[in-house]
Fold:
Amino acid sequence: MNYSKKIDTKGVYDVIVVGSGSAGAAAAIAAARSGARTLLIERLPFLGGISTAVLDTFYGYYTPGNNPRKVVGGIADAVVNGLKGYNACFERPNTFGAGTGITYHPEYLKIVWETLVEEAGCHVLLNAWVQDVVKVGKEIKALVVGTKNGLACYEAKQYIDATGDADIVFLAGYEFELAGAIEPAQTLTTTFKMVNVDIARRKAVTKEAFHHLMQSASESGRYDLPRKEGSDHVTPVDGMTATIMTRLKSYGIIDGQTFNATNPEFLSSAEIRGRLQALEYIRFLQDCVPGYEKAQLASFGVQIGIRETRRVRGEYWLTEADVLSARQFDDQIGLCGAPMEDHHDGEGTKWKYLPDGKTVGIPYRTLIPRNTGNILVAGRCFSASHVAHSSVRSMAQCMAMGEAAGIAAALCAERGISPAALDFAVIRQELLHYGAIIDEL
Ligand SMILES: Cc1cc2nc3c(=O)[nH]c(=O)nc-3n(C[C@H](O)[C@H](O)[C@H](O)COP(=O)(O)OP(=O)(O)OC[C@H]3O[C@@H](n4cnc5c(N)ncnc54)[C@H](O)[C@@H]3O)c2cc1C
Structure:
């Protein structure tokens, strides 16, 4: 079937950011704050992506270990300050040694993201799904966006792909690695929240005892629990816990072709199976875990949690060796001290740590897809191997990447140059001006 229809241009901008997760929302704030006419396009009816639709704890703000050090600033600080204004967050130690986490109320985080984005002067289009790109040579000319009014085109000088799944890179035919094609992809998780939990009784059960209960429940044959070391934690709401417990395989191969959570049929099935699996864990909690006797399901995550799908091939490819050696780069725009956390298909989770208190630098070049003209990426689709990605994908680092990409895109739009041609020293200077932390002490 041939389909062709004229699509009107509805807006022309300096910078368009697609996807409003931790990376995209930060990118939009940074670009608009720098004076660029900026549009943020988001398919959901609220901002925040995984930060508001799936989770409630920021990791990556601090290095793990005995002497925690804060390694992000700038917009990441503004987000936490906004949450503090609603008394909607608190710090808590991480059960797996990933460093101090910041647990927040995601409904307030939606408001915080919206406030910061609007205060920066950014235009926002919610319930709008980018479906295609118009290219001239290697540059993107316009995005084709699906809305309730049908398809519309939006044009910009510079684009930021913060879709998490590198949708724009994919639609434009640029290079990426499909998670699952070379190494096993990280598993999927349907999160859920429980209310009426007796927190004091639950806290009396140690982590080891909790995992032992999960293991024995599974071995009894009465519960189907694929992951035996999932976690629950307290939230800012009294008597409510949030969980990261379920585990679903995220990729496979049919006729030699890798598929993952970017495959619509596979994703539909995973969403449905994820909720059923969550029910099994809820039954286990209610039957077997002290404190959960009278607890009830409050909510599932808005969507299944997807850790990785497409990672772009950028001007630099961050590797496991870079992370483990805490490598520093001349063009780094942020730091990461979070351990590598591989949620693989099996029962456990593989953890590998950087040297105590150290961080790896995040090079600006990991945000520039190679052989392109006017696009940057930010967030979990940045240019890194599967294993390096499992460290640097925490939300604090996504915000740091977003802030750098937003500054860079605004500068490129103003100067009429490509992201690859931009002097990284200028971006680093701007990041420091706005309070970002980009270098080891
Ligand atoms: C189950 C799970 C547990 C995790 N645990 C933690 C944790 O505890 N702490 C932590 O810091 N990190 C955690 N992570 C990692 C972290 O949450 C993610 O790496 C990070 O949130 C990714 O942010 P992002 O902005 O890159 O992408 P996302 O948050 O996925 O944002 C992408 C946005 O783009 C939008 N979008 C996508 N395609 C389109 C399109 N075509 N058109 C318009 N909009 C589009 C989406 O709706 C979404 O809002 C976890 C991840 C998962 C899945």
Remarks:
- The chain has two domains: 9-179+308-433, 192-300.
- The mean pLDDT is 96.
